[in-house]
C-alpha cells in the first residue's frame, strides 16, 4: 500500500487532496496571504490574499470549506496555466495559398540548454507538405505563414 501523507488540519496549515494550504504574512502590506502548493512541489502554484480574523490582526483560520475552495481554485489555475503553455508551444494558422488552403504549424521544444522549433505545413487532406527547423523565437503570424508557404517550401501540390 502506498504511503499517503497524513492530513494536516491546523488554523494556518491544511493538507489533503494532493495540496497544502499555508497562511503566510503578506510582505506587501499588513495583511495575510494563502499559498497553495501541490504536494512534492518546491514552489506554490498559487498565492492569494487571505481574510483577516475578527481581531483585525491575525488571519482567519483555515477550515474544510475554505480548503476545498482553495484546492479547486489552485487546480483550475494550474490547468489554465498548462493550457496557455501548450497554446504557446503549439500554434497553427490556416492560410490560402494559390488555389488551396494549408495549415502552418509552429511547434516549440522549450529545452533549457537547447531550445528548438519546427515549422511545418499540411494540406487540406492532412498530408505533410514541408517541415523546417526555425528559431524558437520565430513568430507565427498570418503574414509569416503566407510568406513561408509562398516561398515554395509549403505550396500545395
Summarize this structure briefly:
This protein is α+β, with helices and mostly antiparallel strands and 157 residues long. It has 2 helices and 9 strands, in the order βββββαββββα.
What does this molecule look like?
The chain is of the alpha+beta class and 157 residues long. The chain folds into two domains: 54 residues, no CATH class; 65 residues. 24% of the residues lie in helices and 37% in strands. The chain contains two helices and nine strands, in the order E-E-E-E-E-H-E-E-E-E-H. The strands form two sheets. A five-stranded antiparallel sheet has the order 1-2-3-4-5, covered by helices on one side. A four-stranded antiparallel sheet has the order 6-7-8-9.
Mean pLDDT: 89
Q: SS-based structural class? A: alpha+beta
For the record, the count of structural domains works out to 2
N- to C-terminal separation?
58 Å
Query: What is the count of helical runs?
Result: 2
The residue fraction in helices comes out at 10-25%
User: In this structure, how is the largest beta sheet organized?
Assistant: 5 strands, antiparallel
Question: How do the helices and strands follow one another from N- to C-terminus?
Answer: EEEEEHEEEEH
Task: Find the count of extended strands (DSSP E, 2+ residues).
Answer: 9
Low-pLDDT regions = none
Shape: elongated
Strand order of the largest sheet: 1-2-3-4-5
Radius of gyration: 24 Å
Amino acid at each position: 500500500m502506498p504511503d499517503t501523507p497524513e492530513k494536516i488540519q491546523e488554523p494556518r496549515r491544511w493538507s489533503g487532496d494532493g495540496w497544502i494550504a499555508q497562511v503566510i504574512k503578506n510582505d506587501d502590506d499588513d495583511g495575510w496571504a494563502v499559498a497553495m502548493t501541490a504536494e512534492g512541489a518546491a514552489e506554490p502554484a498559487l498565492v492569494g490574499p487571505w481574510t483577516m480574523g475578527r481581531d483585525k490582526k491575525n488571519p482567519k483560520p483555515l477550515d474544510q470549506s475554505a480548503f476545498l475552495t482553495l484546492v479547486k481554485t489552485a487546480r483550475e489555475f494550474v490547468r489554465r496555466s498548462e493550457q496557455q503553455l501548450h497554446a504557446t508551444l503549439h500554434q497553427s494558422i490556416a492560410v490560402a495559398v494559390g488555389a488551396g488552403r494549408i495549415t502552418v504549424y509552429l511547434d516549440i521544444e522549450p529545452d533549457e540548454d537547447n531550445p528548438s522549433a519546427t515549422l511545418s505545413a499540411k494540406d487540406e487532406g492532412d498530408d505533410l507538405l514541408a517541415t523546417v527547423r526555425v528559431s524558437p523565437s520565430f513568430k507565427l503570424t498570418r503574414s509569416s505563414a503566407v510568406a513561408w508557404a509562398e516561398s515554395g517550401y509549403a505550396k500545395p501540390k
